[in-house]
Amino acid sequence: MSSRLDGAPLQPAGVYSLLGALAAVLAPHALRIPAWVSIAVAAALAWRAWLAWRGAALPRKWVLLPLAVIGTAAVVASYGPHLGRDASVALLAVMLALKTLELKTLRDAMVAVCLGFFLIVTNFLYSQTIATALYMLAAMAWFTAILIGLEDRVRSLTIRQRLGGAATLMLQGAPLMLVLFLLFPRVQGPIFGLPQATSAGVTGLSDSMSPGSLSQLGLSDEVAFRVQFQARPPASQRLYWRGPVLWDFDGRTWTAASATSIGTSAVRHEAAGAPVSYTVTLEPHYARWVFALELPVAAPVGTVMTDDYQLLSLRPIRNRLRYDAASHLAYRYGGDERPELLRRALRLPSGYNPRSTQLAREIRERSSADADVVSSTLELFRSQPFFYTLVPPELGRDSVDEFLFATRRGFCEHYASAFVFLMRAAGVPARVVTGYQGGELNPLGNYMIVRQSEAHAWAEVWLNGQGWIRVDPTAAVSPARIQVGIAAAVPAGDPLPLSVRGGFHLLNRLHFALDAVANSWNQWVLGYTPERQTRLLTDAGFGAATWQTFATLLMGVAGAVMAMLALLILRRLRAMPSDPVARTWLAFCRKLARRGTRRRVGEGPRDFARRAVSEQPELEPKIVDIAELYIALRYAGSGSKNHERRLRELVGAL
Is 328 a catalytic residue? Predict the structure, then answer.
């Protein structure tokens, strides 16, 4: 575009469209940035729209400069001096909002549109779901249509024509986009190297457990991970997904030991039968633990296994993680446990839960062996009126005493905590294991969905000659929780999500369909990791693919795609008449053809115009003007450049 057009003033309609597109892209950030930023941005956009409506003058530089300084200082004050992802997005939003108050010429609009394209990318720093991708694709089409409108100074294209042109341009760029997706060297880690959010606000397990912590997860239907088994999935009662192992108790809260404190030496176990193989796609939870069925054979790639069979990632899981694992469902381990770990598994704080301590001593006195202590305690849970619920009463300082002798209503963490406390008080080494139990098979994708509502806690006790044995006291109170699932175990009045409770056939099928689509997106788009990219090229016969291989292939294939597109465009241009008047007349004929009036072979312009008027009487003035102007330019030779421009304007407005 020429410098003269760069300085051309913006029309109010163009300002409104650009402000609307910017507001649409900024809207998803409203819940992520401070409220004052959202209010300030909305006020700036509304101010600019009001100025366009009134035709008033824009603010002067001496007004905008202090606003920019104040906005920057406010962002720094809100986030601190180190600008991470959130602070950068907030600052960009403030600066872009102020930039709209300078929108005066086409050049200003071009800059704002380019910033809008960059703002689209920032949304993917927070979410890479299908919904986000579709929304941002629509925003990209909107901005592209605005660019077409800014370039169009003659034909006065309609909104539909501009959107159609934007769709055409995006489709033409799709092959190159696919090539870049497949071959551009991928880097593992956070997008653009920006620091990701912490675990604040992330739903999932933690490295501690106190009364009520897991029951809160039972109210969430968010997906924790998905599992694809290579063979038939095991029965529900065998699906114990091992997570953090909790060793230390302060009277109310159980906490996990660090990997360095428990060691990471080679683990040993005895297994019966073949292992179960599967692939896990784990949602980001910003901690290090990963989940596998008890008992994992070995640590998957990128993880380590501790002495207590926790699987820990080498780095916090900030992005979706896909890994292969194998587990033995029948096993024995820990028969030669180190004495210091057994002593740790007996520790209890002094001065807490005296009634439970006395109960444990009585059970010990009646039992001849540690196994009898376990059996007697489980029988206590079975025979006494204990209840399994998602809404347990709050507990105080002596939480185990209050649960065992007063409320007797609890979720899995109450039963696991009380059981392990009784074991330790009775002299039986024990610890709490947290993770997930069960899962829901999606028949549309033949994979298993494990939700946060399946969060579970159980116990492990150490028996001489047997090693560590899994004991689930929740199963003694509510067998349905383990055999069927949480929906069959909790009372009907508990606030369980509809997608978890079940019983709604159509709703379940819709949910399965949406999750199957999301899972495919996760596997083939978001799950296209550097490892999968390398595997793809290796399978294609490129051997050990290096970054030089990727660069060579990328340049070669991208060049070939661009050459093919260029040839297609050149072929189309060659098929068009070189005479601009003839091209405009052909455009006029194509428009009438779309309305049902197609020009016949050998039909002259005057005859065609007469027939078009008879078939399209509502367009008579425009058809007559176009035909007469074309005849004058084409045959009479009595036209000028102004007449050619007038012809283009008439055809463009048709």
Answer: no
- Write the pLDDT tens digit of every residue in 352-388: 999 999 999 999 999 999 999 999 999 999 999 999 8
Unique residue bearing structure tokens 């080494």: 429
Burial of 25 (0-12, 13-18, 19+ CB in 10 A): buried
Asked if residues 348 and 248 have their Cβ atoms less than 8 Å apart, the reply is no
| Of the candidates 286, 201, 258, 205, the residue with the CA atom closest to the CA atom of residue 457 | 205
What three-state secondary structure class fits 307?
coil
pLDDT for res 184? 76
- Cα distances (angstroms) measured from residue 130 to each of 202, 291, 429: 20, 25, 48
Q: Which residues contact 594 (CB under 8 A, 6 or more apart)?
A: none
For the question of residue 114 being annotated catalytic, the response is no
Residue among 308, 412, 414, 515 flagged as catalytic: 412
Q: Which residues contact 443 (CB under 8 A, 6 or more apart)?
A: 512
- Sequence-ordered strand ranges (E) for 215-294: 223-229, 240-249, 254-256, 269-271, 276-282, 289-290, 292-293
pTM of this prediction exceeds 0.85: no
Alpha helices by DSSP H, listed for 80-199, are 85-100, 106-123, 130-151, 159-183
Among 454, 471, 478, 456, smallest CA distance to 412 is for: 456
Per the residue annotation, which of 370, 472, 494, 515 is the catalytic one? 472
CA distances from 372 to 346, 360, 381, 422, 426 (A): 17, 12, 14, 13, 11
Cα–Cα distance measured from residue 342 to residue 416, given in angstroms and rounded to the nearest whole number: 18
User: Residue 175: what are its φ and ψ, rounded to 5°?
Assistant: -60, -40
Residue 456 bears catalytic tag: yes
Check if the beta carbon of residue 208 is closer than 8 Å to that of residue 246. yes
Catalytic residue among 29, 285, 414, 456: 456
Per the prediction, the chain carries an average pLDDT of: 84
Contacts of 255 (CB under 8 A, 6+ apart): 207, 208, 209, 246, 247, 248, 249
